[in-house]
Amino acid sequence: MIVDPGGFKAELPQGGRLAGLDVGTRTIGIATCDAGWSFATALITIQRTKFTPDLAILKQLLEKERIVGLIVGLPLSMDGSDSPRTQSVRQFAKSIEIPLERPILLWDERWSTQAVERALIDADLSRAKRHAMIDKLAAAYILQGAIDGLMAGTLLG
Q1: 18 φ, ψ (degrees, to nearest 5)
Q2: For the whole model, what pTM was predicted?
Q3: Tens of pLDDT along 14-28?
Q4: Domain CATH code at residue 141
Q5: What angle do CA 126, 128, 130 make, to 5 degrees?
Q6: Which of 16, 58, 130, 131 has the smallest number of Cβ neighbours within 10 A?
């Protein structure tokens, strides 16, 4: 179920591992965090094909990693309003909520890709290496922001 920021932590009173998703048109970056919600780690980027095979990959990965909740990056416009991309991600989250049977928190990801891209450029990675890593690292950035907010009790996602 998609829950509001205040209700997400209540849905998971015992904590547990979370996954962060950076949902793009061609890829889904995935990151995970520890059960204590301390740190996020980039995990994998999957190439999107069609919804049913993408869902099967997600389902298998969530089971394998023992994920209890999802943080889905929500690409808002810079002024905080919805964009066509925002609506696409909201629809994706709505489509996965019943089959994945885990609470979902939509998290503001306005600066995630830009922040990760800057860090990779600063690390002097080639364009090809940046391209291969950007989505899963953006997912980790999104997830880290959310778990920091969950732990501090300052959820603004």
Answers
A1: -115, 160
A2: 0.86
A3: 889 999 999 999 999
A4: 3.30.420.140
A5: 70
A6: 131
